[in-house]
Write a structure and sequence with these properties.
By secondary structure, the protein is an alpha+beta fold. Helices cover 29% and strands 24% of the residues. The chain has eight helices and 15 strands. The protein has helices spanning 3-9, 15-33, 56-70, 132-135, 204-214, 232-242, 261-274, 305-316; strands at residues 43-47, 53-55, 75-80, 87-88, 95-103, 114-122, 144-150, 154-159, 165-170, 175-180, 191-193, 225-226, 245-248, 278-280, 300-303. Strand 9 (165-170) and strand 10 form a beta hairpin. Helix 2 packs antiparallel against helix 3 (56-70). The chain is globular, with a radius of gyration of 19 Å. The termini are far apart. It binds 2,5-anhydro-1,6-di-O-phosphono-D-mannitol and magnesium ion. 2,5-anhydro-1,6-di-O-phosphono-D-mannitol binds at residues 52, 81, 100, 103-106, 195, 230-232, 248, 258. Magnesium ion (MG) binds at residues 100, 103, 232, 264.
Length: 317
């Protein structure tokens, strides 16, 4: 079933917005696959608001997602990893979107999985141009979220509140087609995913958790396997399919970790919870955190219930 037919049968208030993003992602996917021949590898001579060098494909993807918002009348405002401030789109629109247009930038030039992540909220202001308070909303107030994965297949996972849908892009038909309409994240898993090279910088709870994962315990198949792609979208898609836990934890000097709350941690935690998993920052549920600034960061531990609960137990002890 195509995405279009799926929304005919299952209409939601944000179907138009999701469909517009899906169209945008097809353009990004095609550019990702042809990046070298389109001269879209490498970086621009620019640094973004995060202090990171902007890759050509980051900039391209940001423009595509912004266009997708302009093409959809229900979108009132746009926040992107690549833009310092918010952008007002349609003053009469009802929804605001926070986007990481191309997650996993460091993997662009090595042809490893990368993707697009987004979260959607209903604006708080009534009309006119959006303001920052429209975006500084908790994950519990999200009305939808999703991510596209540009890997060996182009996949699209999203939720508009009930269940997580998985679509795959069919290159022959040029359409996203339904693969699973209720994707569930396994309750248990045997894979942990962390940049273990940074172990000496992590807080003690993380060191203890990694020691737990690597200890020999036949009863629950430990030691677990370590898998780390270095793209949250890639590591999380595997977690949705196979179970396990993905961590980008706090360091001893930096309680907030690396990943951004509004367009990385919240959308992934929203999807994980809708699929039966869990996302925390250590002590707290990610979706309960009150964002205080547009590009703020958060530690994240996310995935199968059993493993995230284990981390939380260690963290709180
Ligand atoms: P990006 O949005 O600038 O690409 O950065 C986020 C990425 C995540 O996809 C990934 O989980 C993380 O950075 C990897 O960071 P590190 O290289 O420190 O392990
Ligand atoms: Mg990112």
């Amino acid at each position: 079933m195509t995405l279009q037919d799926f929304f005919k049968n299952n209409p939601t208030p944000i179907s138009g917005l999701i469909a517009s993003f899906a169209n945008g992602s097809i353009k990004i996917s095609e550019s990702v696959r042809n990046a070298a021949t389109l001269s879209l590898t490498g970086s621009l001579d620019e640094v973004n608001v995060q202090g990171e060098i902007v890759q050509k494909l980051d900039d391209f993807s940001n423009r595509v997602m912004m266009d997708a918002c302009h093409n959809e009348p229900s979108v009132a405002g746009y926040l992107s990893e690549e833009n310092e401030g918010i952008t007002s789109i349609h003053e009469s629109g009802e929804y605001v979107i926070a986007v990481d247009p191309l997650d996993g930038s460091s993997n662009i030039d090595v042809a490893a999985p990368i993707g697009t992540i987004f979260a959607v909220w209903k604006r708080k202001s009534k009309s006119g141009a959006v303001d920052e308070s429209d975006f500084l909303q908790k994950g519990t107030d999200c009305v939808g979220a999703g991510f596209m994965l540009y890997g060996s297949s182009t996949l699209f996972l999203f939720s508009t509140g009930e269940g997580v849908r998985l679509f795959s892009y069919n290159t022959a038909s040029g359409q996203y087609e339904l693969v699973k309409d209720n994707l569930l994240l396994p309750e248990k898993g045997k894979i942990y995913s962390i940049n273990q090279g940074s172990m000496s910088k992590f807080e003690d709870a993380t060191t203890q958790f990694v020691n737990y994962c690597t200890a020999i315990e036949k009863a629950d198949s430990r030691p677990y396997s370590l898998r780390y792609i270095g793209s949250m979208v890639g590591d999380m898609y595997r977690t949705f399919v196979k179970g396990g836990v993905f961590l980008y934890p706090a360091t001893k000097g930096d309680k907030k970790g690396k990943l951004r709350l509004l367009y990385e941690c919240i959308p992934m935690s929203y999807l994980a919870e809708k699929a039966g998993g869990k996302g925390i920052d250590g002590a707290n549920r990610i979706l309960d955190l009150q964002p205080v600034s547009l590009h703020e960061r958060s530690a994240i531990i996310i995935g199968s219930l059993e493993l995230v609960n284990k981390y939380q137990e260690i963290y709180n002890s």
